């Protein structure tokens, strides 16, 4: 009887990848496995056909021979690539299929875990963040043991291959026709055991140590920025690579300035007379004081922009501005004479329409209030 096309048996196209083939095989294997077909001979033959097709199409060499020569290319009785002296054990193949689901396929070596990443919180003043700074930090961490160079074994000895998993780091547990990969209980997934542990690290391969590191903080950093120091985290297990250290920047609040992106903001008190008559103010910046010209009749809340007096961006290099908000300060602790002068000033401004000329906002406000109540009564 002629054999069916292997691609047809599994229900896949000739261009199907290994993952698609495994998925199709898993579905058919669960349906036609002898444990489920209760001795049906015809279905047992069908299952062997499915198993044979899977073995050929997941082997690159056999699949290439099959694609070129058909069944003759893989028939051991006709000089083909063959099946290596008989069909493979179903449990092994089934284990391969489910390996991706249950933590790794058969024959995969256990990998030592990379060391954990660490975080260090670095507090800085606004001036330090804007200008940049070289700082030294002390970080408690795990480093590779000097005595065993991270192997965990005493000097003169070395870790041995685990006798339970034979270095795989995993063992296969079967229940019915399921094959599930589990971490080896003997070596905890390392694939090796240490019979003579290092005296310094007691077989861990790592010891606790406080490292002193120099960190170059670039100019322009802000709260939330992170500086990554590659390989300065915890040492990995059994000589695996170390993790990274992330320096998390936090900029303390400033007494004068508030930062928003690359711009700085500050409030500048303005005297009553300077606001009315105009003049000059001394305005603080991170580079020192600068003079700011104030026009006559300046109102409180007016914002002045000092270009280029902000922060240089750590990413783009663009420089922000300093935004100065003036706040008119009402005079306090006045003498009798000063109060009389203010009353005289107030009287000089007149009443009604004359006063509106000097205090337009006040007059506009009360006009709006009058209109509001007139609308309510109408």
UniProtKB/TrEMBL annotation:
A zinc finger (CR-type) spans 132-210. Residues 5-70 form the J domain. Gene3D superfamilies: DnaJ domain, Heat shock protein DnaJ, cysteine-rich domain, Urease metallochaperone UreE, N-terminal domain. SUPFAM superfamilies: Chaperone J-domain (SSF46565), DnaJ/Hsp40 cysteine-rich domain (SSF57938), HSP40/DnaJ peptide-binding domain (SSF49493). Its cofactor is Zn(2+). Keywords: Chaperone, Cytoplasm, DNA replication, Metal-binding, Oxidoreductase, Repeat, Stress response, Zinc, Zinc-finger. InterPro entries: DnaJ, DnaJ_C, DnaJ_domain, DnaJ_domain_CS, HSP40/DnaJ_pept-bd, HSP_DnaJ_Cys-rich_dom, HSP_DnaJ_Cys-rich_dom_sf, J_dom_sf. Its main location: cytoplasm. Zn(2+) 1 binds at residues 145, 148, 198, 201. Pfam families: DnaJ (PF00226), DnaJ_C (PF01556), DnaJ_CXXCXGXG (PF00684). Residues 132-210 form the CR-type domain. CXXCXGXG motif repeats lie at residues 145-152, 162-169, 184-191, 198-205. Binds 2 Zn(2+) ions per monomer. Zn(2+) 2 binds at residues 162, 165, 184, 187. One of its GO terms (molecular function) is oxidoreductase activity. It is found in: Cytoplasm. Participates actively in the response to hyperosmotic and heat shock by preventing the aggregation of stress-denatured proteins and by disaggregating proteins, also in an autonomous, DnaK-independent fashion. Unfolded proteins bind initially to DnaJ; upon interaction with the DnaJ-bound protein, DnaK hydrolyzes its bound ATP, resulting in the formation of a stable complex. GrpE releases ADP from DnaK; ATP binding to DnaK triggers the release of the substrate protein, thus completing the reaction cycle. The J domain is necessary and sufficient to stimulate DnaK ATPase activity. Zinc center 1 plays an important role in the autonomous, DnaK-independent chaperone activity of DnaJ. Zinc center 2 is essential for interaction with DnaK and for DnaJ activity. Homodimer. Belongs to the DnaJ family. This is Chaperone protein DnaJ. It comes from Alteromonas gilva.
């Amino acid at each position: 009887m002629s054999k069916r096309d292997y691609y047809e048996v599994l229900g896949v196209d000739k261009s199907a990848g290994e993952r698609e083939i495994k998925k199709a095989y898993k579905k058919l294997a669960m349906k036609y496995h002898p444990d489920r077909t209760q001795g049906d001979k015809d279905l047992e033959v069908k299952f062997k056909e499915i198993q044979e097709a899977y073995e050929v199409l997941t082997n690159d060499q056999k699949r290439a021979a099959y694609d070129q020569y058909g069944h003759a290319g893989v028939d051991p009785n006709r000089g083909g690539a063959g099946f290596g002296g008989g069909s493979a054990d179903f449990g092994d193949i089934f284990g391969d299929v489910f390996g991706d689901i249950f933590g790794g396929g058969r024959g995969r070596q256990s990998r030592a875990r990379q060391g954990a990443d660490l975080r260090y919180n670095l507090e800085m003043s606004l001036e330090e963040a804007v200008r940049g700074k070289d700082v030294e930090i002390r970080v408690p961490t795990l480093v590779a043991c000097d005595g065993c160079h991270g192997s965990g074994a005493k000097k003169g000895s070395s870790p041995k291959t685990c006798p339970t998993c034979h270095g795989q780091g995993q063992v296969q547990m079967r229940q019915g026709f399921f094959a599930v990969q589990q971490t080896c209980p003997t070596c905890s997934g390392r694939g090796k055991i240490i019979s003579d542990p290092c005296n310094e690290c007691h077989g861990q391969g790592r010891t606790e140590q406080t490292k002193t590191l120099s960190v170059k903080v670039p100019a322009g950093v802000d709260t939330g920025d992170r500086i990554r120091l590659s390989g300065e985290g915890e040492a990995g297990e059994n000589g695996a690579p170390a993790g990274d250290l992330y320096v998390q920047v936090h900029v303390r609040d400033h007494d004068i300035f508030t930062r928003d992106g690359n711009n700085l903001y500050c409030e500048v008190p303005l005297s009553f007379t300077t606001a009315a008559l105009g003049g000059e103010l001394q305005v603080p910046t991170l580079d020192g004081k600068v003079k700011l010209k104030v026009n006559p009749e300046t109102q409180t809340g007016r914002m002045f922009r000092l270009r280029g007096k902000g922060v240089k961006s750590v990413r783009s290099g663009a420089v922000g501005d300093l935004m100065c908000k003036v706040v008119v300060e009402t005079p306090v602790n006045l003498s009798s004479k000063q109060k009389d002068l203010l009353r005289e000033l107030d009287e000089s401004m007149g009443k009604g329409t004359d006063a509106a000329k000097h205090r337009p906002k006040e007059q506009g406000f009360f006009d709006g209030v009058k209109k509001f109540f007139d609308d309510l009564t109408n």
